[in-house]
Amino acid sequence: MKTGFYPGCSLNGTSPEYAQSTLALSKAFGITPVEISDWSCCGATAAHNLNHELAVALPARVLALAEQQGFSQILVPCAACYNRLSVTQHALNGSEEQRNALAKTLQMPLSGKLRILNVMQFIEEFIAEKIAEKIVTPFAHKVACYYGCLLVRPHSVLQFDRPEDPQSMDALMAKIGATPISWGYKTECCGAGFSISRTDVVAKLSGKIVKDATERGAEAIIVACPMCQSNLDMRRPHIDSYLKMKTSIPVIYITQAIGLAVGISRKELGLEKLFVPAKNF
Length: 281
Fold this sequence. Notes:
This protein is an alpha/beta fold. The chain is built from 15 helices and 8 strands.
């Protein structure tokens, strides 16, 4: 089955290590997702707050392009992109009139039957069963699995995991030898798109996440969203200032953690790009 790859703006700009580690992990398991040609921004995070028509048209164009290029499913690692594409397809499937009108505007057919996979769904379906036989160095660390807002909500649309206490990332980390902790912030907001406009808000919200993970003994925070990773990692000086304490817990993508366990090099996984160093992994 031909799997498309939608990197979105983050993986193609501010978070190249997420794309790098996702593709390196796929390659290690004999999978080669193909990037959607001529993709464009999905509108996250601002479009749906400003212009409904644009907020639907932007992700719909990506979906139409994927269908046109022969993909039956696409891998969307960015949680914000995954959310926008999924919510849009769900909305269009609920209104044939709107879907047909948008297809006419885009000048491309839009069936609404594309499978949209987040990174955990992709790993579970294509990689998880083979992980045990490929482990070189078990990831023997206590970890805080952080899902954020957009991977599990709205549950009525995404139908992925449990909205309040998701377990898919925890299960995958356990497969590579990690010990996921029980903690209170796995689906709390990190501040999302306020990273530039309201860094104080990000410091407060992300600070609570970092503090709880640290106090519960986690050695790393595991993420699957470039926005969450950026806020928890890049904004660490602001977080430490808010907390009035120095924190050193690294924020690692799940693709990087699994990649390390199966012997992919740190360079291939982009670990040197982290602001808070992952020295002991």
